[in-house]
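Q: Got a minute? One more chain.
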Amino acid sequence: QVQLVESGGGLVQAGGSLRLSCAASGRTSSIYALGWFRQAPGKEREFVAAIGWSGLPRYYADSVKGRFTISRDNAKNTVYLQMSSLKPEDTAVYYCAADSLRVGTQQNEYDYWGQGTQVTVSS
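A: Always. Here it is, folded:
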């Protein structure tokens, strides 16, 4: 089993930045892909970004390209999401996810999930 714990969420003004972290524990040697998803109130959970073991490939949702950057530190078993130029529509609960096989953009491609961290962007 793999456990994932997100941190770094909070309240920020539009145009500001936040960095989310997700620390993995347990059978971390089985992790290949790490991803971020988000769910806004009243909406479906959606893909944000994903990264492979070596740092490649990296995938981003069109809505965050050029503003968000995903990275990972395998020595710390941690994945990061650097978010810049934040917009009110980025407000959501952000979830970290892990998979042992592939870097995917769909929720059902990930086996392990964190509890989420709230990001609120005020206008």
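A: The chain has a mean pLDDT of 97.
Q: Perfect, thanks.
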